[in-house]
Specification:
Strand order of the largest sheet: 5-6-9-10-11
Helix content: 25-40%
Radius of gyration: 19 Å
CATH architecture: Alpha-Beta Barrel
Shape: globular
Number of strands: 14
Length: 349
């Protein structure tokens, strides 16, 4: 059950919020600092309404010593996650770290060696830990800028086909199921990927998945000549309106377990480049929960509130294996005012 409740809330101007949801603090997954300092990101995480954010290992965290060092530097808001493999494709010390209590390990983005991936799933199966993979067949996406489709054709851009994701999802599901290894699929964007995950869950496979808030908020119709800015240079890319509707349906049915921010900050210099040269990333952390709720409202509430809230709070905790004191003991409060939805984090007394 998702533990959330509605309660009255008085706003600073003395008026009452039109609607309020209060629930155990939201947790973000696979957050990246990018060009932002950890201190700045930590403040933004709390200002956005999250209790904490689990950090994707932008630098290798492959040994218990690496992990201890990262956790010692953590302020309890940003929690480093361990790597599943090194940049050269060799395995991290999953066994030692899992014995220390780690439940979730991240495969490096762009990892494409299927033989080594199969070996990794085989090895990880002995420890019951979950391997997180960003599914993409990169050879199908070379020089891609946005999703393949009408917008890419209209703008004359190289597109990334949905099949690059859905085929990778199918491969990962089969390799993980061979060894009964718990699997997490990151950043799903298209209907066919969701259908694969749905079938796997119905067959009893231990698989979880997430989608980025941006993919619920926007579709590829935002790509116009006027909008070719860093704000929409996202990966995973925005897909069609039909795929966005499928994401909301999958959220409502429980196929999607978590909604993530997708945060990976870029420098001002990077964002000033021509669209094709801007690195993929996202600066959506500030105000993201309110913006997500505004999109939910604008699309006529396409999923139940408890399902969306669960994907921000209970779902990420299950994926991480967090419980009790592992996350800050506070609440996220979502409220609807005259100018839309807002969020804040509130410590429990």
């Amino acid at each position: 059950m998702n533990e959330f409740r509605t309660s009255p809330l008085n706003l600073p101007d003395g008026t009452a919020a039109k609607e309020t949801f209060r629930f155990p603090a939201a947790v973000d997954l696979f957050t990246c600092c990018g060009a932002k300092s950890a201190g700045t990101l930590g403040r933004e995480v709390r200002e956005a309404g999250y209790g904490c954010a689990a950090l994707y290992p932008e630098h290798e965290i492959c040994t218990p010593r690496d992990l201890r060092a990262g956790r010692l530097m953590s302020d309890g808001i940003l929690i480093p996650l361990p790597s599943a493999a090194k940049s050269d494709g060799s395995m991290a010390e999953i066994g030692l770290m899992s014995r220390g209590g780690e439940k979730l390990f991240c495969l490096p983005d762009g990892f494409s060696d299927l033989r080594r991936l199969r070996n990794l799933f085989c090895y990880a199966a002995d420890f019951g830990c979950r391997i997180a993979v960003l599914p993409c067949l990169h050879e199908l996406c070379e020089k891609g800028q946005i999703s393949e489709g009408a917008s890419a054709d209209r703008l004359g851009m190289k597109g990334m086909p949905p099949a690059a994701e859905s085929l990778a999802v199918e491969i990962c599901l089969q390799l993980a199921e061979e060894w009964k290894t718990p699997l997490h699929l990151r950043g799903l964007t298209c209907r066919r990927s969701l259908d694969e995950v749905r079938r796997a869950k119905e067959a009893g496979q231990n698989v979880t998945c997430d989608t980025a808030a941006a993919n619920l908020m926007y579709d590829d119709s935002v790509y116009t000549v006027e909008n070719l800015r860093g704000r929409f240079k996202l990966f995973p890319v925005l897909r069609s309106a039909e795929d966005r509707a499928a994401l909301w349906d999958a959220l409502d049915s429980g196929v999607i377990d978590a909604v993530v921010s997708g945060h990976r900050a870029r420098s001002a210099d990077d964002l000033a480049l021509p669209f094709e040269e801007i690195p993929f990333g996202s600066e959506l952390m500030s105000g993201i929960l309110g913006s997500l709720m505004d999109a939910w409202e604008a699309q006529k509430r396409p999923c139940r509130a408890e399902k969306l809230i669960g994907a921000l709070s209970a779902g990420p905790r299950r994926i991480l294996g967090f419980s009790g004191d592992a996350v800050p003991s506070g609440d996220t409060v979502l409220y609807r005012g005259a100018d839309g939805w807002h969020a804040f984090y509130e410590k429990r007394s």
